[in-house]
Design brief:
By secondary structure, this protein is an alpha+beta fold. Helix content is about 65%, strand content about 10%. Helix 9 (about 210-270) runs antiparallel to helix 12 (about 340-380). The chain is rod-shaped.
Length: about 425
């Protein structure tokens, strides 16, 4: 359409309007909003000329990129997963068992003398027992997820054949050509063991393709875990008892050596007990000195009475001389030469007897400590308490044939929406 025709049409439809007179004073005139000029071209409807097509129809419109990406990113994987989980995935059965690591010192409450009972879990000792039990439980769970248990179970059970099954689907089964390290990762996905921190209870779940395999594998794991706990308890008990037993044997040998030395001294000296011999000699010497004093008194009286020439005086003098010889001999035995005196023998005997008593006390103390440590070690012996044995499952828990594809769809949808928002934000910044 020619330009002159358009202008004439516009003039006819929208005649020019004269500006309105300002009624308000000039002070308030500036607060009145100005009337928006109308653009006549905005009201013009575009009419294509004959023989020409609409440009929008020429381009055909933009393709629905977002819909295509959503179908490829979320819907297609959802359909593939649905087909796999509903029609292809093999049934997997789960056997569950529950057990705990306990010791004889924490099996219950101890009765007091007044008939009341005290809980072992209260106080610092209870916290220590709980902490040690929890540590032992972590040792068991770590052992269940290690290669050591695979080596031990492999000596009694062909566990690989339970997962390398031709009747299982290709994604779930384990391939025989894979390495042991890869099987350990596969084992972690099918065997789980977690601890309830508050109670120390270990929950074991074993997933296999048949109910019998899941139960057999669960029993084998429990058996090897029990053997591990017994070995750890035996090793700890042997270490403690062995050190105390060495002290007992050392002190016992020292005590035996002191007895041998004391017996040799008695045999060489001919004295069973120098202390008794010295006591007897001292008593006898005291009697001889008393008798000598009496003789001297009688001789003094006879000399005062001028009877020193009488036969009685002569006999009394001979008796006094004989008594003096006995006293001198006895004194010589008590305090004579260094190698033959009774005092020397008494000193040596006292040293040997003191060593014997010390060795005896040390031996008795070490024996008592050994008995105490042995009783405590036996009281703290660890054992595996199984209170929920694995039973034969009736139905397959895995796979979740409907919930798993839906969860995958939900996750992929969230990821797609997040990526779409990020892409839209980037496009906005570009504009």
């Amino acid at each position: 359409m020619p330009k002159t025709v358009i202008e004439e049409t516009v003039d006819q439809q929208y005649p020019q309007v004269k500006p309105a007179r300002h009624v308000l004073p000039s002070l308030f005139r500036r607060w009145v909003p100005e009337r928006r000029e109308r653009t006549d071209l905005e009201e013009i409807e575009y009419v294509p000329a004959p023989g020409m097509q609409d440009p929008e129809l020429q381009t055909g419109g933009k393709p629905p990129i977002r819909l295509i990406t959503f179908l490829l990113f979320a819907i297609l994987p959802f359909l593939v997963c649905s087909v796999y989980y509903i029609f292809i995935a093999s049934d997997q059965y789960v056997a569950e068992a529950r057990f705990a690591v306990r010791s004889l010192s924490s099996t219950g409450s101890s009765d007091k003398g007044d008939g009341t009972s005290s809980d072992n879990s209260s106080g610092p000792s209870g916290l220590l027992n709980m902490r040690s039990a929890s540590q032992d439980a972590y040792v068991v769970t770590s052992f269940i997820h290690s290669t050591e248990i695979l080596k031990r179970i492999g000596e009694k059970l062909d566990y690989r054949s339970m997962f390398v099954r031709h009747d299982a689907d290709f994604l779930s089964r384990f391939r025989a050509s894979q390495s042991d390290e890869e099987f350990l990762d596969y084992w972690a996905n099918h065997v789980s063991a977690y601890i309830d921190v508050s109670s120390g209870i270990i929950t074991l779940k074993v997933r296999a393709f048949t109910p019998d395999d899941s139960v057999k594998l669960s029993l084998a794991i429990i058996q090897e875990s029990e053997l591990l706990i017994n070995q750890l308890s035996q090793r700890a008990r042997d270490d403690i008892v062995q050190s105390m037993r060495g002290d007992v044997e050392k002190n016992g040998k020292a005590y035996s050596d002191t007895l041998t030395a004391l017996n040799l001294f008695q045999h060489q000296s001919g004295l069973l007990s120098p202390e008794t011999q010295a006591t007897s000699s001292s008593t006898l010497l005291t009697g001889l000195l008393t008798q000598k004093l009496e003789f001297e008194t009688r001789l003094f009286v006879m000399r005062q009475s001028n009877a020193d020439s009488s036969p009685a005086y002569q006999q009394l003098t001979l008796a006094q001389q004989s008594l003096q010889d006995q006293i001198d001999k006895m004194k010589l035995e008590l305090t004579g030469p260094e190698n033959a005196s009774l005092s020397k023998a008494l000193l040596e005997y006292s040293q040997l007897d003191t060593n014997r008593m010390i060795a005896e006390k040390l031996y008795e103390a070490s024996q008592r400590n050994y008995d105490t440590v042995l009783a405590e070690a036996l009281r703290k012996t660890l054992y595996l308490a199984v209170f929920v044995n694995p039973t034969l499952p009736d139905e397959a828990i895995f796979p979740h044939r409907f919930t798993t594809p839906l969860m995958i769809l939900l996750a992929l949808s969230v990821i797609w929406m997040t990526l779409s928002l990020i892409w839209a934000s980037v496009e906005d910044h570009r504009i």
